[in-house]
Design brief:
98 residues; alpha+beta; two-stranded antiparallel sheet; 3 helices; 2 strands; 47% helix; elongated
């Protein structure tokens, strides 16, 4: 995990966190298993092949994976950097790529 921290004002910091796919693939696989149970046109619920489910729900899968990972990775970055958090962590942008 690569973390860059910079000050952006009084008592405020901005963090840029970069991780490899291996750090988020477990979350992706968990979500994919949940999405595979949803109905996909042309298939009985839970019976669509994995590539079809991935293609059909691609954007939602990546967005949900990112949202799930942001919380975990931001907590880890704060802990690793020794920063005291006094308020909620907010995310201004996020991108996830396979």
């Amino acid at each position: 995990m690569k973390v860059q921290i910079r000050d952006v004002g009084d008592h405020r910091k901005e963090a840029r966190i970069e991780v490899g796919w291996d750090a988020v693939s477990g979350d992706y696989e968990d979500l994919l298993a949940d999405y595979a149970k949803l109905p996909v046109p042309g298939f009985r619920p839970g019976k669509a092949p994995r590539p079809v489910v991935e293609k059909h729900f691609e954007r939602s899968l990546l967005d949900d994976t990112g949202a799930r990972c942001v919380s975990r990775l931001s907590r880890k970055a704060v802990e690793d950097e020794g920063i005291s958090v006094i308020g909620p962590v907010s995310v201004t942008s996020m991108s996830i790529e396979r």
